[in-house]
Amino acid sequence: MHNDRMTTKVAVAGASGYAGGEILRLLLGHPRLRSGELEIGALTAGGNAGATLTSQHPHLLPLADRVLEETTPEILAGHDVVFLGLPHGTSGEIADALPPATLIIDCGADHRLQNAQDWTDYYGGEHAGTWPYGLPELPGNRVALRDASRIAVPGCYPTVSILALRPALAAGLIEPQVTVVAVSGASGAGRSPKVDLLASEVIGSARAYAVGGVHRHTPEIAQALSAAAEIPVSVSFTPVLAPMARGILATCTARTAASAAEVRAAYEKAYGDEPFVHVLPEGMLPTTGSVIGGNAVQLAVTVDERAGTLVVVGAIDNLTKGTGGAAVQSMNLALGWDETEGLSTVGVAP
Amino acid sequence: MHNDRMTTKVAVAGASGYAGGEILRLLLGHPRLRSGELEIGALTAGGNAGATLTSQHPHLLPLADRVLEETTPEILAGHDVVFLGLPHGTSGEIADALPPATLIIDCGADHRLQNAQDWTDYYGGEHAGTWPYGLPELPGNRVALRDASRIAVPGCYPTVSILALRPALAAGLIEPQVTVVAVSGASGAGRSPKVDLLASEVIGSARAYAVGGVHRHTPEIAQALSAAAEIPVSVSFTPVLAPMARGILATCTARTAASAAEVRAAYEKAYGDEPFVHVLPEGMLPTTGSVIGGNAVQLAVTVDERAGTLVVVGAIDNLTKGTGGAAVQSMNLALGWDETEGLSTVGVAP
Amino acid sequence: MHNDRMTTKVAVAGASGYAGGEILRLLLGHPRLRSGELEIGALTAGGNAGATLTSQHPHLLPLADRVLEETTPEILAGHDVVFLGLPHGTSGEIADALPPATLIIDCGADHRLQNAQDWTDYYGGEHAGTWPYGLPELPGNRVALRDASRIAVPGCYPTVSILALRPALAAGLIEPQVTVVAVSGASGAGRSPKVDLLASEVIGSARAYAVGGVHRHTPEIAQALSAAAEIPVSVSFTPVLAPMARGILATCTARTAASAAEVRAAYEKAYGDEPFVHVLPEGMLPTTGSVIGGNAVQLAVTVDERAGTLVVVGAIDNLTKGTGGAAVQSMNLALGWDETEGLSTVGVAP
Amino acid sequence: MHNDRMTTKVAVAGASGYAGGEILRLLLGHPRLRSGELEIGALTAGGNAGATLTSQHPHLLPLADRVLEETTPEILAGHDVVFLGLPHGTSGEIADALPPATLIIDCGADHRLQNAQDWTDYYGGEHAGTWPYGLPELPGNRVALRDASRIAVPGCYPTVSILALRPALAAGLIEPQVTVVAVSGASGAGRSPKVDLLASEVIGSARAYAVGGVHRHTPEIAQALSAAAEIPVSVSFTPVLAPMARGILATCTARTAASAAEVRAAYEKAYGDEPFVHVLPEGMLPTTGSVIGGNAVQLAVTVDERAGTLVVVGAIDNLTKGTGGAAVQSMNLALGWDETEGLSTVGVAP
Asked: Which residues does the UniProt record annotate as the domain Semialdehyde dehydrogenase NAD-binding (chains A, B, C, D) (predicted)?
């Protein structure tokens, strides 16, 4: 087991990126850090190795004395938990070099897809295999994660899209062709310097990208929804970059003959016991602003009767529930801790 | 005719709002203002009557000496052109009180819909009638606008949604059920002070509103698309407010069996001669940032073959092509001037 | 004493405003809430009384069942702690109607100033008196707050301005004429709907306001700095509104003949033991983004030798350390708890 | 002379940057382009050579057929006007290789400073010499620019800072120690991809940079202000990056014994005939939002009598009046055209 020592020691690889920074932000607020049961060990980076952590993340003041090390198996060894916030294609090798009992939680894409052909089509190269999927809200996943020592954290767009559409598909209430248009903040694109992610380009502008089903999160969404529907579900997915740092607002539609009451009942049943998924009361609509920094998923479920269309709007913080929060939630489960420790449903608003 | 005098005198009712301000911004750059053929006359307002124009619009420096008057037929009389930027339900009465030869260009919703029941369903009250629709890019409209003395400027969402989907529907290339998810800047919601439009609420947050087909622009979109398809088209429309002042990015989807080449050909044929509608070359995608302040419509046309879906992404400035630019374009046509005078396809970027 | 019962019951008056919302956000993360030692009682409002709390603050999901009550002494009675987030001029009356032992923490301005003439000059009307000033980082304040049952939370601009300049003045290192230009997010202006606070007006624009020393926080800054210098200090203060929701970045300057080393030494001595004030290492500069949601104050201390000027740049979150965080910090002190409980130096970034 | 041919042919070197894009945006609206007297010739770039212009500037649709060429003297030869939007240190060599009669307008810093030591201190390397300074609003400059074939466009911060403080210094109304804190949008930092200019880093955050007098625009401000005062003026300059794409708001202060009336009179006299500098009426304050895309400078002049301080707040668009607009204004002057052609005082707001 991972937690048979007094202290669980955690490493973060890719600590200078946004996923790594978010994991550290959440760990600094984790109650077991204060109690001494959790310890933050090695923090590693690629090009930023050698720099101080706070030169990269000046918001992580309690770690002001930390220096980023190289991302190598040697430095990551000796930890109970290793979070990976690395470019895709790199986590398999590191995982192979670490002991099987080490809990490895990969925020990258390498081990999310079940179908090797999907991997090759969307990412290229060879598929590294499939790990338990760190979305505890899907049937069966919570149990699987409690036994896992390898966990693939879902993509940010898939997290909200899957949660927004799964109950309707599982209940057979919509046609198996779904459309997702998801507005995201810029942090979802990572921290590499690129001209089209400069503030001057993003502020005051909205733009779609990866239009036409070519975004790599498309097969991940289809995989989970097809499992829910028990038939193949086709997904038209369009991501839109908006001038904000965090947050995803996904508008998810599909044709339906069901009534609003039927659909609401399915969602309330599906998520009634979930600590992080909130089906909003009628008349309320989610805003990304209200989930910033929190692990909540807010869903509004509506039927447009004129158009015969189910419209589910979902909001998450892409860095929290969409990445770092899901990683910590998965860690809590795998370590036998309460799933919600260190995570909040309260956003930082306005 | 409107232009048989030496000087065409223009009034703007509702000059303190965003539509009124945008019309004035464009008129100040109109070549016939400089040449003296165009003259800016009365500027009227409701609650702001008595204030200086630049207390409301400090960007309109050349009109710094102007004071806002009351919006009354008496003050609007004696002008060749009257632009109305008023709340819906008020323009009919003003129009009735002005001479039939006065060119009235209404930026409000009163005279856009053809079906009185649609009006009652979405706006309430009695339908004021239908005026020529100020979207010259629709077949037949350009001719009709040249003879018009009453013009209904389209809604901002309908402008981009209709232009994005009409060619595919007219050519029978998509199913007559369409989905539009359109991200808009806050100026589309007008200038009335409301808590949910405060900067603190909008910055850092995206939210959908009027979800489930209840937005008033829905029947307007359906009306034009059904005319194009020659059968009823159902429209699932979801507007999303994003943290920007201007711009609409509409992601428009429908199921298709057509190839990308067929679809592109239909769009290039439809818009090849249009001065303001640009079908972007393959690989380019529109950004609202590149159309700010200009009258351009940028469209990207894509087919997602896996999902059997046409995806057209369109960008406009909601205040220019979506309101004030369309109003000036319509004025130009109705006065027999070149349609593009005072309007640009160049945006202010970044 | 306030904490001689098992549970400390807290009310928030003005719970639908930004100050009230921030206090509740912090209380929801307070460790004594989870342990049952702290209980959230009445939540009151003015015009929003009768609405649910989450209709106003959808980010406060754990309080989704709460309804806002009227702000009356009767409803606020029976609580150990009452936070006031009310317009200025209203807290004195409420305080008078509550028992002397009730800990009242006023986020408004009524009881901050010591000089009645300053109050009259800047706020008008009669001065309500002076309460202990909830800035524990000032000499003597921490002790005073431990005994207090009435606390005036400092203004947001004064908090950062005072902390940025006090050590230099106390050490006699600068001339007693200081200049503060402070950039603030829009939440500092509160939640009342006003045209000039609309997202469309604020996004894409920076503007100074209350220019020429007329901002009401000016005498509050001067009061604390004069006390530090033991001579009157004149303050030129200009607030600037920038397109962000939270955060203040204050650039504070004064003429100096001191060296950078002397000045740094004074600041490090002043704040070396302070849990929330961080004098950044040379070469690092504060960003408001790195303190969002946290109670940290980040200061960079620089001497411009060519211009003979001390430049101290300070960053806080105006709603946390600038309002709600200071309120909770003051509560912790007055209740004899650890000052830092429920407060973090970690910001939510990016 | 430059304009003795029928058509003036213009090249832009560094056309893929923000300065180059802004010059092209303005040229596309220049009345002499439409009349055929002005022609846009070679557009060159560094790393982007070979790309289409609209791949870099999708807002410049009328130039959609243009391809970026290499920045070489050969390609720039044969033009009447060459705009340079290049990194500093590179324009001297290009200028030397072009004929003396070619009008070269340099948006870079190479030829702004008169003092070679200042150049070496702030930029390093050898000073390339001094060209006429493209700020026509300074005494004597307008005449000098009419004869110039080499023009140095002022820096963006100096433009607004100098215009904001010069009249008071020239009239001896303030002490010769001035403080400028200027909030700028991100486009002022250029278009090179850097982590700290990513949208995720800039949105939701304000930060000062180059604190302590080390920003390279400091000696440029001091040079012009010292000339105005006829004694050395010390400048404490702090630039602040705010989450917006364009615009500078400069808060400029200095100690004064003068009355508000005296100061206002000096400014009104200085700028009464200037087409682009607007001293706002009392009670109005500038916003960057109201000058976006226009060439206007808005100034508010206030005296804080309590603090004995002059406070002048100035707003410009850093890319228009701060760069590309000044470049076009200078071109107009040097070609003997009306100074205001193609430039507007009307901003794009909201």
From this structure: 9-146
